[in-house]
Fold each of these.
Amino acid sequence: MPSLFDPITLGAVTAKNRILMAPLTRARATMDHVPTPMMIDYYRQRANAGLIISEATGISAQGLGWPYAPGIWNAEQVDAWRSITAAVHGAGGLMFAQLWHMGRLVHPSLPGRGQPLSSSATTMPGQARTYEGKHPYAQAKAMTNDDIRDVIAEYRAAAANAMQAVFDGVEIHAANGYLIDQFLRDNANFRTDAYGGSIENRIRFLVEVTAAVVEIVGADRTAVRLSPNEERNGVNDSNPEPLFAAAAGALSDLRLAFLEVREPDFDGTNGRAERPPIAPLMRAAFKGAFVLNSDYDFQKGQAALDQRKADAISFGRPFISNPDLTLRFAKGLALTPDNKTTWYAGGASGYADYPAAEEPRFVAGAVNEF
Ligand SMILES: Cc1cc2nc3c(=O)[nH]c(=O)nc-3n(C[C@H](O)[C@H](O)[C@H](O)COP(=O)(O)O)c2cc1C
């Protein structure tokens, strides 16, 4: 049975352990979505992860609605990312870029954005983050076939840019209610064409985007993230089990580097899941490496490997406040709790300033009290 500390082959790369860093938006880029030097330190500190999955990174201005989140559509952004991947590689780590289109969550007040795009003309409930505070979301435009073609071209270009920036691969963000999820799930997709209605039709956009990215970077450097079992950003499905089993099956045919599934506990203390676990159906349908996420600690993660529920675990919040998470797991050291107020706050506080653990020191011949 593999341990979380055993290496794992994820397509073209071999991760030195099965403790992956989940994608985490931290809003420390510039207003023009260019990564900043403090991001170099932050990611370098976390190179002990078997693989870092970058924070969600916009494939185009039109697709990025999160103030100060990074993008990967222009040369300046690519150059800045290259410094980050170089630092991670220099520290012995690996890094995939998470490619992001937010669809109807993009607010038109952000510079250069038009009406947001989605599968259908819906409006995201609640209020959008903008550079001038929070504002109600705008109604999305139902994407035409031309829009679909253009957005797929943006994914392709962003994937090519990720290779230019020397990422080891890319993860397509198809989770959490963003654009691809707005096609997948039936409370947001009301189309009557080849991209709506049946499960086969609703997974079409996901499969086309993934196939396009595979053409650019290769299947063995392409991963996908899905979140089958909870409402996120107003997106949900009336019958997610067959939908996500079909999605996993279609992605399996593409022979990807891995599939990452975010699924919270159903009955645990952190439980947000609405239904019993859907991931097992997806694991059965997906023949490649399978990564599970949400609410794992070391013991739960190892148990998931022992029970063959997953091949690796990605950890999100624990990596925010524990840059040396794998070492702490290995030595059984206490974890530092993270501070929600600094998640997206910008600035240096609560970002690359979480210290590595103070290891208990053994002094020969002394009475050692740990
Ligand atoms: C501050 C923060 C930012 C996040 N940003 C992203 C993101 O950019 N992309 C994504 O797919 N998920 C994102 N998530 C979700 C995490 O990747 C992960 O699914 C979630 O934190 C649950 O895992 P955990 O219990 O290990 O933290 C974010 C979560 C947090 C707390």
Amino acid sequence: MSTAMPAFEYDIKDVSLAPQGKRRIDWAEREMPVLRLIRERFAAEQPLKGVRLVACAHITTETANLARALQAGGADALLIASNPLSTQDEVAASLVSDYGIPVFAMKGESTDTYRRHVQTALDFVPDIIIDDGSDVVATLIKERPEYTKNITGTTEETTTGIVRLRAMQEAGVLTFPSIAVNDAQTKHFFDNRYGTGQSTLDGIIRATNILLAGRALVVVGYGWCGKGVALRARGMGANVVVTEIDPIKAVEAVMDGFRVMPIASAAAIGDIFVTVTGNRHVIDREHFAAMKDGAIVCNSGHFDLELNLVALREMSEAPVQVRPFVEEYRTGSGRRIIVLGEGRLINLTAAEGHPASVMDMSFANQALSVEYLVKNKGTLEPGVHLLPPEVDQEIASLKLRALGISIDALTAEQLEYLSSWETGT
Ligand SMILES: NC(=O)c1ccc[n+]([C@@H]2O[C@H](COP(=O)([O-])OP(=O)(O)OC[C@H]3O[C@@H](n4cnc5c(N)ncnc54)[C@H](O)[C@@H]3O)[C@@H](O)[C@H]2O)c1
């Protein structure tokens, strides 16, 4: 809980963890060269001067570096957690103590505390909201409609949040512009695929220390995240099975070399299950009932409703915690089902989320989206917007430069050829 040290309010686990958090934030920063360049430009140009900004995000080392960039640009920022289990308490402590940024987040906070922090964020009366999953924006619209007139715009980090924003737009309640950061190519191509791919397996391995080689690993959903999880699991020797509801994604998985089948069939053969759909109850009562003894089940989609854990609890004795983030359910038939991270994003509960190198591009998109909203205040239509494609190109170019990789440019002859139609066979 809060101590009296810094002269502003905050709600974190322990401010004395700050030195450890500061070292970790600095370590991540080494892998975030694009965001560093943006921070340096922001410090010189002050594009966010006077902006009141709330960020609802996983409170990780990478988010801390985003917060530093926004602060350098002149924003008055407040941070809350976007998930009760993803906060890195030492990072929250350093943000409060070393950077003077109010944070309201603790790893393991209750749902009530999580909701209270959302209210605290709205009490701050922000101009800009950075959201991850759309909980702050949904609460604003439902519970504080009178505050929406203060909003310059919002940005949304993840696929699930954008699905919700589009539903708000459809319902006619989204009265301000919202940038779909996830839909930038330099976000989902890399963060969702390579970030989730690696960090989800990292979470499973840290929680269980199991060998993936030779195991049947079922990936539920072959979207951007699912492709990454399947690709990396195959790389570690797992025998990967994919389930889908979209025929195009299913064909893609087949041609990528994976076995594809309905979840009803996969349930009986899987050793490990990972859901990444953004959808509800994709592993349901009948699937738990069909699983082998010792099956391991986890989720890396945004919300903890992909696994029907209510049904599993009804089918089982009270779960026993066998390791941190590992709970064993013994069903009526005596089989054991192992659930990781309480069904919340496993990469952020049992591991550290995506590596900094990939969040560099995601958060470059966030920082530039905030700048774009401020620059275009009052001129953007209400609704969901994409960042202009040249911003994507710019972020990719900066990333290449930081990696020391150069690429070719079109020659004048090629440019002319590509813009003409006369030359054929
Ligand atoms: N763990 C993380 O750090 C992280 C990172 C990025 C995104 N996410 C979240 O992961 C989820 C997936 O994101 P994405 O970008 O891959 O989305 P996506 O839309 O690209 O993919 C989701 C896939 O799930 C499939 N699907 C839906 N219902 C299904 C069902 N019942 N059975 C099987 N497949 C089903 C869809 O057809 C689609 O192909 C979202 O909730 C997103 O917010 C998590």
